[in-house]
Amino acid sequence: MQRKITLQAALLITLLPLSQSFASPQNIAVIGTGYVGSVLGACLASFNNKVVCVDTNKETIEKLKRGEMTIYEPGLEEMIARYTQNNSLSFSDDPASAIRNSDIIFIAVGTPMTDDGNANLNAIESVARTIGENLNGYKVICTKSTVPIGTGARIKQIIKNYSQNSTEFDIVSNPEFLREGSSIYDFLNPDRVIIGLESERPYKALYDVYEPLHKRAVPFVFTNIESAEAIKYASNAFLAVKITFINEIANLCERVGADVLQVAKGMGLDKRIGSQFLTPGPGYGGSCFPKDVQALLFKGNQVALDLKVTRAAKESNSEHKLRIFEKLSKLLGNDLSHKKVAVLGLAFKSNTDDIRESSSIDIIQKLIENKARVSVYDPEAMDNMKKLFPNIEYNSSTYDAIKDADAIVLLTEWDEFRLIDLAYVRKLAKQALILDARNILSTTLLKKLNFTFENIGNATVSTSSPDPVE
Ligand code: UGA
Q1: Distance between CA 242 and CA 291 in Å, rounded?
Q2: Does the beta carbon of 321 lie inside 6 Å of ligand 1?
Q3: Which ligand 1 atom lies nearest to the CA of residue 359?
Q4: Is the CB of 35 under 6 A from ligand 1?
Q5: Whose CA is nearest to atom 2 of ligand 1?
């Protein structure tokens, strides 16, 4: 019989001595090969585990087997090549046999937003059924996907219903905190690892899986499954609130003559606040914050709780995206008709090809509605954007995009935009109008070159003089 985990037990297992022999490699199946699953698989292989990454999309698996990437994530291609070559990592489109041959199964399939704002659990439930049908011995089932609080219990019930016999298994919630674009670094250098479990039995297997992190004294938090699920949502919602807050302060700065970068710096030096995620921008996007904020609100509703702060962040972020468009429109004298607008950056942030919930989508949509001519450039995300907006102008460089432009809006903080030759831009563009929604262009230089420009929060961005506050 499995025992409910107690606080004492959690403490005891956290304190187990490192000298015990935990080094046996684990046979792991990672189900889902998207942004999370592919990174998870490669990184677990680097921890001396034997990992098979599974996806029912045969085309994806064929590509991965050939060493071709299906997403852009820095360092992933090299890692996959390395660990497939030494046979620690393989790919399969056959979940049933991967499950049967593994001791630990990580679920890393997508949980997209449904129309009513909840997370769509179709893929999760389908994986749980397949696990149940193929449960041929004790296994640890570990959820990496971001799932609404209570989903662990649902997965457990489905596996029970579909397993033919009374084979034992354990459910674990092990949420990920990886940022796209730096996922591999984040996986290998986590601030913490959260493990939600309901018995002591899966502990050893998980200890072995993450052994290198234990050895580096990375903090592990052992808790129950519901708390682990809640930690993931609370963390993402809090970061979304933090970003939204600084964006609101940026709006205030614009009205009162303050500089948001100085304000953020002054705030961030307070250790209770911290400087990260206080960078103003065009509004948060991506596949996580918008979806997770919404799903948390949905969960609140289900239990008759209005999560007011979270709701305000969601509303404020949507308004902020609109406000970026209004700033741009104002720069152009509120007449966009037939004006050529160059959009620099489509990805929701730099170092990714992901455009999900990117502010660029809202802004391009508004530009089209206002009959502007839209000319875009992004180093990685154009193929994805072509699926949404096939009829705007795609360019192969920043300078192609801005040629004869009436205005330029910079939306993603790619390094190559930091290095733009503004003097050349001044010559190429029809009008010297720039909205820098990432505060990365030197305002000193923009002034010197007689640009009419706006950024977020009246920021002074200087690349030439030392920062007076340091
Ligand atoms: C986010 C979290 O940071 C990860 O910890 C989490 O694992 C992940 O969601 C997830 O749930 O899977 P990610 O969506 O990759 O990661 O991107 P972030 O780096 O968090 O940025 C999200 C959005 O906020 C971007 O649009 C970014 O430009 C914006 N942002 C971020 C700001 O506008 N200002 C900031 O200071 C930070």
Answers
A1: 16
A2: no
A3: 26
A4: no
A5: 179
CA distance linking residue 377 with residue 408, whole number of Å: 11
Q: pLDDT of 215-270, one tens digit each?
A: 999 999 999 999 999 999 999 999 999 999 999 999 999 999 999 999 999 999 99
Residue 298 contacts residue 118 (beta carbons within 8 Å) = yes
Among protein residues, the one with the nearest Cα to ligand 1's atom 36 is: 277
Is any ligand 1 atom within 6 A of the Cβ of residue 243? Answer: yes
Give, using CA atoms, the residue closest to atom 37 of ligand 1.
Answer: 277
Atom of ligand 1 nearest to the CA of 349: 28
Domains of the chain plus CATH, in order, are 7-223 (3.40.50.720), 224-470 (3.40.50.720)
Side chain identity, residue 47: F
Give, in degrees to the nearest 5, the angle at Cα 377 between 376 and 380. 135
Residue with CA closest to ligand 1 atom 20: 179
Cα–Cα distance, 462 to 455 (Å, whole number): 13
Two tokens, residue 321? 């995206």
pLDDT at 468: 42
Point out the ligand 1 atom lying closest to the alpha carbon of residue 348: 26
Q: What proportions of the chain, in percent to the nearest 5, are helix, strand and coil?
A: 45, 15, 45
What tens digit of pLDDT does each residue of 389-408 get?
999 999 999 999 999 999 99
Alpha-carbon distance values, 441 to 348, 409, 410, 415 (Å) = 18, 11, 9, 11
CB atoms within 10 A of CB 332: 18
